């Protein structure tokens, strides 16, 4: 059985963001097919014990989970962090370039290796790729790019406050340089969509494989009746979501609130900042973190996603589709998904277009039903089980190099 090491920038429990959901489901797929070991950064708020139990239920013993504490402030690493920053490491990536982290990975690779596949989750952890190449030269090295990170910053900068734009442009240049370095060194890069795959090839990735985001279909039973509320789902500590919610509440909701008088605007997601909390009133509810978004989607007329920045594909679109909730969204919000205007979603860019689309849904139950049924069928092709099987097949067939410099035959690889 092939040995796989998954290197994660967090413990993916609680799985309350799109990123942690993807990480958790891909780890599940790897654990069910390979001899898996996990190296994970343990951050404040992570449920390490829950993750250990979850892995145990998949047959991964606690001895194969390697946790590394990485506090935000580490006085003993100040000099090392400063050097990384001066070498060009992007500001928000410096924590993951610390000596303590590379020392911990060195120990795992030395004592537990060699591995056949080393899976780096997010660009942040791909900074450790040269160390893995040095210590485990025969491994097939893979980066899972949840987003094209430089593209996120490129789209954020022009939408931000003028005083913030120089910093974001500076950060973009650093992230793009790091992204080029990492994806060009990887044996395989995973992308969420064909759109992202094309961008990653332009950045120098040699082999890009699309492993899309998915949805847990049993969690989202299609509804029998149309609801009344307008819902936005997303992690509120991600700036593109905050921007979308502020735009929805300030520019779209005032245009349609009287037409949707039986419902409320529900903002569902963890860590809402003060700017979002300040929106609350009797008809605008900010929930914070919730155990499941399914009950909120079940009572929705529609979900509105006026997203203006981001990359990858939106799990919130797939979840709404699985729940049979009509989606009104910008083209960027559905980027990379096989949706057709008027068949699966309604597209809108301006507040007026969003308002007009929502009024159409309120006045046309047949349109709601048609969109919901088509979107559900689309979502069924994104079940995590099938996506996990595809990843397993990819890793079963990935070429690795034996210690003697030879590659195993295909039958030996299996």
TrEMBL record:
Database matches in Gene3D superfamilies: Glycogen Phosphorylase B (3.40.50.2000)
A matching Pfam family: Glyco_trans_1_4
Location of the Glycosyltransferase subfamily 4-like N-terminal domain: 17-214
Domain of life: Bacteria
Protein name: Glycosyltransferase
Organism of provenance: Corallococcus caeni
């Amino acid at each position: 059985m092939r040995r796989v090491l998954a290197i994660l920038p967090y413990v993916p429990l609680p799985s309350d963001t799109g990123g942690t959901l993807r990480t958790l489901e891909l780890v599940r797929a790897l654990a069910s097919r390979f001899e898996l070991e996990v190296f994970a950064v343990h951050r404040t708020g992570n449920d390490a014990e829950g993750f250990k139990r979850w892995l145990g239920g998949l047959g991964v013993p606690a001895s194969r989970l390697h946790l590394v504490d990485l506090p935000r402030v580490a006085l003993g690493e100040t000099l090392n962090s400063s050097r990384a920053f001066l070498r060009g490491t992007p500001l928000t990536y410096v924590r993951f370039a610390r000596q303590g982290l590379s020392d911990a990975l060195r120990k795992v690779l030395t004592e537990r290796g060699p591995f056949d596949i080393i899976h780096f989750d997010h660009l942040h952890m791909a900074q450790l790729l040269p160390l893995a190449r040095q210590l485990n030269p025969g491994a097939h090295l893979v980066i899972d790019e949840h987003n094209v990170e430089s593209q996120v910053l490129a789209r954020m900068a022009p939408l931000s406050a003028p005083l913030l734009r120089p910093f974001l442009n500076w950060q973009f240049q650093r992230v793009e340089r790091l992204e080029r370095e990492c994806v060009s060194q990887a044996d395989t890069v995973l992308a969420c969509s064909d759109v992202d795959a094309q961008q990653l090839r332009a950045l120098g990735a040699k082999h890009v494989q699309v492993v899309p985001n998915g949805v847990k279909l049993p969690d989202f039973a299609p509804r029998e009746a149309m609801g009344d509320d307008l819902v936005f789902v997303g992690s509120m500590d991600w700036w593109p979501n905050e921007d979308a919610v502020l735009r929805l509440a300030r520019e779209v909701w005032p245009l349609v609130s009287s037409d949707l008088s039986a419902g409320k605007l529900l903002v569902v997601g963890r860590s809402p900042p003060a700017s979002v909390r300040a929106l609350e009133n009797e008809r605008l509810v900010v929930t914070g973190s919730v155990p499941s978004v399914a009950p909120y989607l079940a009572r929705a007329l529609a979900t509105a996603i006026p997203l203006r920045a981001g990359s990858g594909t939106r799990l919130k679109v797939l979840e709404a589709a699985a729940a049979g909730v009509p989606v009104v969204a910008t083209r960027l919000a559905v980027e990379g998904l096989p949706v057709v205007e008027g068949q699966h979603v309604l597209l809108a860019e301006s507040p007026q277009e969003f308002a007009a689309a929502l009024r159409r849904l309120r006045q046309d139950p047949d349109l709601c039903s048609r969109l919901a049924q088509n979107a559900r069928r689309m979502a069924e092709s994104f079940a995590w089980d099938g996506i996990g099987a595809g990843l397993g097949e990819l890793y079963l067939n990935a070429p690795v190099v034996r210690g003697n410099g030879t590659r195993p035959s295909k039958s030996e690889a299996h």
